[in-house]
Amino acid sequence: MKIALIGAFSSGKSAVLEFFAEAGYKTFSADKTAHYLMRKDAVVREKIISKFGKSVTFKDGRISRKKLGKTVFADEKKMRVLESILHPAIKRNLLKKMKGLGKAAVENPLLFRMKMAGFVDKIVLVKSDFSKIEKNIAKRGIAAPRAELILSYQRRNLKYPRRPHFIILNTGDLRRLRKDTRDVIKALENERRNV
Questions:
Q1: Cα-Cα-Cα-Cα dihedral of 117, 2, 98, 181, to 10°?
Q2: Distance of alpha carbon 124 from alpha carbon 194, whole angstroms
Q3: pLDDT per residue over 138-194, tens digit each?
Q4: What does DSSP assign to residue 91?
Q5: Domain ranges of the chain
């Protein structure tokens, strides 16, 4: 069974993904895959530098995610250019890793934009209220202006054309989130057995 976790920035998807790993799922993250590709995939790196210039790199030629983020989150057209480079590479990478796995969970807030919904069996939305998101952002040490750019982008672009199969509300503490995630995993396992 392939599960996709969707939801807003800092809503708790990564914690939920860890709980899926504890339950025996192989887990993957679209964000971590993007970071890996920008570091290790020469073709992806060269395309990004070709489109955005050396202003998004460190002196040693590595891509600065902070500089790149500042550039693309402030300009929709530039974001579309970056997505046209990264999304196909992320999708290829994730699908290759997930192929043949019995139980896999992928954290991908842009699942629908990347046209990956057809490759998963169930979709789980992780929702959180804004005060919880703000606390999560502060814990991660993300500067307020950068966080606002990301949240603003997501408000405009995170539209889900299909209802999720399950919703996990992340409004309490980590213990509550673990329990709610385990309940969803149990429901998923029961569905799988009854098919």
A1: 110
A2: 19
A3: 777 777 777 777 777 776 667 676 789 999 999 989 999 999 999 999 999 988 777
A4: H
A5: 2-194
Indicate the residue type of 109: P
* pTM of the model as a whole: 0.88
What class is the 2-194 domain?
alpha beta
Say if residue 144 is exposed, middle or buried (CB neighbours under 10 Å; 0-12, 13-18, 19+): exposed
Can you tell me whether residue 122 is helix, strand or coil?
A: strand
More confident call, 120 vs 141: 120
The amino acid at 25: Y
Task: Retrieve residue 105's tokens.
Answer: 């969970």
Beta-strand ranges (E) seen in 12-57 are 26-29
For 31-60, write each residue's pLDDT tens digit: 999 999 999 999 999 999 999 999 999 999
φ, ψ of residue 168 in degrees (nearest 5): -110, 120
- Residue 173 tokens, joined: 């503490």
Q: From the CB of residue 131, how many other CB atoms can be counted at a distance below 10 Å?
A: 9
